[in-house]
Amino acid sequence: MKRGRAERPTRITARVAVVLAAAFLAILVLLHFLESKFDPSWRMISDYEIGNYGWMMTLAFFCWGMETGQGVGKLRHSPPRATFDGRPTRCSNAAVLCFLLS
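^ thats the sequence. predicted structure below, dont judge the formating
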């Protein structure tokens, strides 16, 4: 079965989403080691922005938001039956906006 050009944006979007999710997790794990004074068992991950490496947590949140945005992009390029009349897309757009504003 030959893949057409219409499938290319969704494949690229999916790969970018995976890379951004991996970057978020890698930054978060790195911050657990760099900011050892924060106990992740009872503190929120946003508390990492308070410390010396706050810019890294901002970058992690940016990666998380962009990864969610890539998921929305994947939904938009999916067949119509996969979007349930656009409702998940609108909810995902709201989630992306919240991540990027945080």
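The chain has a mean pLDDT of 75.
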